[in-house]
Amino acid sequence: MQPQRYWREIPQRYRLEAGLCRKCGKVFMPPRGVCDSCRSTDFEMVRLSDKGRIHTFTVIRIPPSGFGEQVPYVLAVVELDDGVRPLPMVSGGGTPAPETPGAVRLTMQVADCEPEDVRIGDPVRLEFRKINEVGKSGVICYGYKAVPA
Amino acid sequence: MVGICGYGAYIPRNRIKVEEIAKVWGTDAQSYKKGLMLEEKSVPSPDQDTITMSVEASRKAVKRAGIDPRLIGAAYVGSESHPYAVKPSGTVLAEALGSTPECHTADFEFACKAGTEAMFVASQLVKSGAVKYALGVGADTSQGAPGDALEYSAAAGAAAYLFGADRDLVVAELVDTYAYMTDTPDFWRREHMFYPRHGGRFTGEQAYFRHIVSAGKGMMAKAKKKPSDFAYVVFHQPNGKFPLRAGKLLGFEERQITTGWLVNKLGNTYSGSSPLGLTAVLDVAKAGDLILVVPFGSGAGSDGFVFRATERLKSVQGLALKTRQMLDERKRYVDYGTYLKYRKMIIMNE
User: Chain A within 8 Å of B192 (Cβ-Cβ)?
Assistant: First the structure.
């Protein structure tokens, strides 16, 4: 990964900042310019919850490069618990967000677990982890992984 | 009133037992267990390093303080295992907390004392009025050469302290500080070397005990306190035996030491060692309790900190996972081969 691309993703990778459509309440992670539900371009930046449940998962045994030392590992779709929190530092406190929207789901690794112990519906919380390294001399890319709660 | 407004700890879930390491090198596990009072140590996963543990410990500290992270004017990480040789750990930390861009950041190094260096500077910046809140973090994924005595103890963990001067937020008032430092080459790692080297028994009397005992005495004299005034004392914990003996030499009883004495189950988390011990004390301390902290860093020096717990402490203790919970619950034991893989000590093709 190029450092420029990684740098652009820092608000999402480090702080789970997402775009909340002020018109219909749909949440986009990563944020986008136009809502695919109502076509509004009026978004507020919000921070996603760091707790959730495993919606579904798979076990990776043949990994992409850079993940070999972690196999077998669990890759899951995590449904976050309690919607979103307003983010005054980005939105400047503008219009209040609509009611908490529908479920926000993110795809991520589940760390600190044995694959055979993972079940759909298990509670998890998100922890800051190293996601991958660009070789031995490139940048180190950080972000969140789920761990059993 | 300057003091700790929030604190947080992080300990990885993986552990390796002394027997598992001794089996590989043909040494007598019982002599390490008895001689160094060590049973097992924490091991970081391949996706954990000083930065990830600093962020997790700091998130707990901010949660306990209950402040807006934008008000953190300084964030310092002390470690001897910063992931980058050139590029600060503190920038990732401050960015992850949401404290950038108006935040001063630097990485500290002083062997096992780097974490308390960060705490010292953070607290003094708040005291001077330069910043409203400052974060001092000690974190390490410690290194010990395979087969060396250090391999039985070098562990991973982090502790974070958020200092402020807001009377309503302080959970432990910083009563006084002290520093005692000499040039003593007891432990070092040269540039481009993978593992540290040490002076064997020279690390004991002339390094650890001389500095800890002198700093402990100096701190108590400066603060006009005696050992019996303190509810708890925390020393640097390179093994189980040293801090207990240091306590005895300074006139403390074992009951004052054991609450923050984590090393037998945790190992030596280097820059995280005495800071993690203090988190375990703050998890249970009561208003009015006096706490003495005396870290040690090879090279060599010791600091002194005297804290007094406030009424607010009990209301924040349960806001985040406690240190003993992380130490005793949900452990995951790894064998020596997995440990080597996790610590990247197996030579691999690119």
Answer: no
**Span B134-173, pLDDT tens digits:** 999 999 999 889 999 999 999 999 999 999 999 999 999 9
| Chain A residues in contact with chain B using a Cβ-Cβ cutoff of 8 Å | 10, 14-15, 69-70, 89, 109, 111-112, 127-131, 135-136, 140, 142, 145, 148
Question: Chain B residue closest to A114 (CA)?
Answer: B332
CATH architecture of B1-350: 3-Layer(aba) Sandwich (3.40)
Contact flag A142-B52 (C-beta cutoff 8 Å): yes
Gap between the Cα atoms of B158 and B320, Å rounded: 14
What single string gives the DSSP state of each residue in B50-61?
Answer: HHHHHHHHHHHH
Distance from C-alpha of B236 to C-alpha of B22, rounded to nearest angstrom: 24
- Which element (helix H / strand E) includes B279? helix B273-282
Helices marked H in B36-113 — which ranges? 50-65, 89-97
Nearest Cβ partner for A129 among B52, B330, B350: B52
CA distance B164 to B161: 10
Q: What is the DSSP string of A59-89?
A: EESSPPTT-GGG-SEEEEEEEESS-EEE-HH
CA distance A126 to A111: 10
Q: Which of A6-10, A58-62, A96-100, B73-77 has the lowest mean pLDDT?
A: A96-100
Which of B43, B47, B325 has the highest number of chain A CBs within 10 A, making it the mutation to test binding with A? Answer: B47
The Cβ of residue B241 has, within 10 Å, a number of other Cβ atoms equal to 17
pLDDT of residue A103: 76
Q: What is the pTM of this model?
A: 0.95
Q: Which of B20, B80, B117, B151 is catalytic?
A: B80
Phi, then psi, of B291 in degrees rounded to 5:
-130, 130
Range of the structural domain that residue A133 is part of: 3-148
Q: Where are the domains of chain B?
A: 1-350
CA A50-A12-B58 angle, 5° bins: 55
Q: Is the pLDDT of residue A98 over 50?
A: no
Instruction: For residue B275, give Cα distances in angstroms to A86, B115, B272, B349.
Output: 33, 7, 5, 38
